[in-house]
Amino acid sequence: MLEQLNEKDFGTPRRIAEQEVTLEIDGMQVTVAAGTSIMRAAAESGVNVPKLCATDSLEPFGSCRLCLVEIEGRKGYPASCTTQVERGMKVRTQTPKLQALRKGVMELYISDHPLDCLTCAANGNCELQDMAGVTGLREVRYGYEGENHIHSQKDESNPYFTYDPSKCIVCNRCVRACEETQGTYALTISGRGFESRVSPGQDQPFMDSECVSCGACVQACPTATLQEKTVIELGQAEHSVVTTCAY
Amino acid sequence: MKGSEVVRMVPDKNGQANEGHSCVKGRFAWGYATHKDRILKPMIRGKITDPWKEVSWDEALDYAAAEFRRIQKKYGRDSIGGIVSSRCTNEEGYLVQKLVRTAFGNNNVDTCARVCHSPTGYGLKQTLGESAGTQTFKSVEHSDVIMVIGANPTDAHPVFASRMKKRLLNGAKLIVIDPRHIDLVRSPHVRADFHLPLKPGTNVAMLSSIAHVIVTEGLLATDFIAQRCEDKAFQQWRDFVALPENSPEAMQEITGVPAELVRGAARLYATGGNAAIYYGLGVTEHAQGSTAVMGIANLAMATGNIGREGVGVNPLRGQNNVQGSCDIGSFPHELPGYRHVSDSTTRHLFEQAWGVEIQPEPGLRIPNMFDAALDGSFMGMYCQGEDIVQSDPNTQHVTAALSAMECIVVQDIFMNETAMYAHVFLPGSSFLEKDGTFTNAERRISRVRKVMPPKAVYADWEVTVLLAQRMGYTMDYAHPSEIMDEIARLTPTFHGVSYEKLDQLGSIQWPCNDEAPLGTPTMHIDHFVRGKGKFIITKYVATDEKVTRKFPLILTTGRILSQYNVGAQTRRTENVQWHQQDILEIHPHDAEERGIRDGGWVGIHSRSGETVLRAKVSERMQPGVVYTTFHFPESGANVITTENSDWATNCPEYKVTAVQVMPVLESSDWQKKYTRFSKVQDDLLKNAGEGTGNKTPDIKIKAVAKSIA
């Protein structure tokens, strides 16, 4: 519903190169600059490959495993965000096998996620929600009773945004935004495996950390994990206007 | 947005200046726009000791116009003037200077650039031919060497700083010339290759010694100089900087920086590939501010680092629209497009368009206005969106001048420090409440779009139109786009600018005209705007502001990330959680010598005055130098700063004040007086109107737009 408020996300940054590469994606001929990811090439030609950890303001990371594709003549299911286009490549982004793989990945994500979508601040503007829809998630075979992060403590120390670890899918977009967009390196992932959590500094509250509150992480977050307090209070916007910052 | 309520601000990925990034202020600190302190009713009073009286717009404007005419009749045509805001739009600034040059009939108009980047305007015009930075922000992605002089980008220009850090992480070298150990000197994954921690006030000595190394070690870009620069001026400059007195060894005593460091930095700048200079108010706000700007331009020309991507001379500007306010003629000596009022061709052009006679002599600069007020010859002022009392140096002098005046009209969104000395208050409008344009340091003109109706009925430009009308001069505009059309018609560098084109292109970097229909991202590509580049001799002259036994430390002032300038906006947001008060940073040695504890109260004396702040003992400072910010009026940072100023432009020497610092137990006399005065003014405001109080309608408007271009 809020698609029109968000700018189109091509998944990976634009590449500039003199050389162009033509390939086939889902039967269509696509020509893009050399060095472009398959994900972006697809997006530029109107095909949106499912994704969670990719966003076009950040370098590809390849962790969410939703953007898998099939490439003719290649084994396996490479991630389209980290795989660059090659001349003559034949890519398929939608097959029954890919559908099954993506659904399986989504099941895992959702098995450790609070299912409070209707009362969640990101409702209507949540990439996790969108991907659940896109992948056709209908059930979670693992149930919701296993070990989870649902009772994690919220960090509300920052005056402008909250950090709710229970909604975090550990896509690393916030950590990467802090590094790549802002250059402050205030965020990291602490712990390993299931224990992995986004952490400002040494597991400090945001306000006690090196965070400069630029909000790049909030913008990058695909869920309600990092969320503006104004959105929590007021709900999602219904229209947008482009203007110029007054500072 | 939800209706006219702002929900969130999201920086626009397509914003050509910021490319999807913002800082804590832009993204989050917009709550001031709907803060309960907004004054939404016009008010007048006969004397500043009278209570404010809420009146209709008609009454307030009639009163202001009548007062201005009365003053002119009594004290002469030149006894009134106006101040252009660097936070308002280009169109609004243009109208204020037009009002002064038409309805007021003089050139007494100035702007806050007087106290920040006026030396940039002067210095770059003299050397390169245009009063503006040479590059786009994006250009830094092509730099191999970045030299930062007198700027603290991670605090004061954080969005650009992020971009710069990105390039540094990818291998560019960094030279920092700054008295303080600013964050860029060493932060996660970024480390300056050279930090030259010079003594405040010695920029020109430093720049000359860098030039000395370039000239005497054979590092000049001789082909570039031969083709692009005036030969005679170059030779004179070369011979001057080559003098032994300008060597890093000779200058070491003055700058306090080891000669070898200077030599290393100079070699890196001259030979490291594309080298770009970024500088801030640490260059301009000095007795030799203009000289230092010319010294910077000299370095760029001497090494051929100008006229392509990745190089250039880049002022980091002080306020959102300080470039724009200068462009549109807000200086007392210049008509729009930096054309001198003495130039009869330009004057005739405007005379014809405006239907008045324009005075050929420059008007008063802000400090001259204060002096004239105390002399009794300058008695009325129209001040739009600028807080001169808190911003300008030597507060006591400023307030004495304002107290001597008969009619001060302040147009602002808040009852600022200047408004406490005003006789007419006209409610202003925030950037969310009007259409217009801002121009940033890249010369980039971007659209400001109205997202909610003006909370006090009128946008700022409309108020100026109404005031002009009351003074008998008709300004006829239905929309700010028509004001821009007029600017474009009358200003060669803006000929091609229109709202339609801005909508099409997103933004435009001037010059934009038949020669450059899409604007000019990089300047001086094939030739300098003035034709040949002109080297100018930059002889170091020590400031009169010297340390003495009585005042043994140097105070330098600046900003911090979470607060914006005088803080009128950011103090009214949650940003105060990061910075609740201005503090004095002092080196551990200086602190220990004086028995100053971290967090203790200290009195800071200069020959201008005294104030009291809390101390922060910090290794960021060099011994002998103390630092504070000026975001809170009660701090009185400018009670201490002096009336010393740049020789060419009168830009105040904020960066060098000789002081003594001692532990104290109570606030200073000035602060006590300030507190009493503010309390009285507060009461006069509370009692405004007829027992209705000054309650502003509690409209809950939360914010704005989605995108920041």
Q: Can you describe this structure?
A:
The complex is a heterodimer of chains A (247) and B (709). Chain A is an alpha+beta fold and 247 residues long. Chain A has a domain at 102-234: Alpha-Beta Plaits (2-Layer Sandwich), CATH 3.30.70.20. Chain A is 21% helix and 13% strand. In chain A, strands 2-1-4-3 form a four-stranded mixed sheet, with helices on one face. In chain A, strands 5-8 form a two-stranded antiparallel sheet. A two-stranded antiparallel ribbon of chain A has the order 6-7. By secondary structure, chain B is an alpha/beta fold. Chain B folds into three domains: 39-113 and 339-509, Rossmann fold, CATH 3.40.50; 118-315, Dimethylsulfoxide Reductase, domain 2 (3-Layer(aba) Sandwich), CATH 3.40.228; 553-665, Barwin-like endoglucanases (Beta Barrel), CATH 2.40.40. Chain B contains 24 helices and 27 strands. Chain B has a seven-stranded mixed sheet with strand order 3-2-17-16-15-4-5. The longest helix of chain B is centred in the first third of the chain and has 19 residues, at 57-75. Chain B is globular, with a radius of gyration of 24 Å. Chain B starts with 9 loop residues before the first strand and ends with a strand. In chain B, 62% of the residues are buried. Chains A and B meet through helix 4, helix 6 and strand 9 of A and strand 1, helix 1, helix 6, strand 19 and strand 27 of B.
Can you give me a brief rundown of this structure?
The complex is a heterodimer of chains A (247) and B (709). Chain A has 247 residues and is of the alpha+beta class.
Topology of helices and strands:
The complex is a heterodimer of chains A (247) and B (709).
Chain A: E1 20-25, E2 28-33, H1 38-44, E3 70-71, E4 90-92, H2 96-111, H3 127-135, E5 161-163, H4 173-182, E6 187-190, E7 197-200, H5 216-220, E8 226-228, H6 229-234, E9 242-243
Parallel strand pairs in A: 1-4
Antiparallel strand pairs in A: 1-2, 3-4, 5-8, 6-7
Chain B: E1 10-11, H1 24-28, E2 43-44, E3 53-54, H2 57-75, E4 80-84, H3 90-104, E5 109-111, H4 118-127, E6 145-149, H5 153-156, H6 158-169, E7 173-177, E8 186-187, E9 190-191, E10 194-196, H7 203-216, H8 222-228, H9 231-241, H10 248-255, H11 259-271, E11 275-279, H12 281-284, H13 289-302, E12 312-315, H14 322-327, E13 334-335, E14 339-340, H15 344-354, H16 366-375, E15 380-384, H17 388-391, H18 395-404, E16 407-412, E17 424-427, E18 436-439, E19 444-448, H19 460-470, H20 480-490, H21 499-505, E20 507-509, E21 553-558, E22 583-586, H22 588-594, E23 601-605, E24 610-617, E25 625-629, H23 637-640, E26 657-663, H24 669-686, E27 707-708
Parallel strand pairs in B: 1-27, 4-5, 4-15, 6-7, 6-11, 7-10, 11-12, 15-16, 16-17, 21-25, 22-24
Antiparallel strand pairs in B: 2-3, 2-17, 8-9, 13-14, 18-19, 19-20, 21-26, 23-24, 23-26
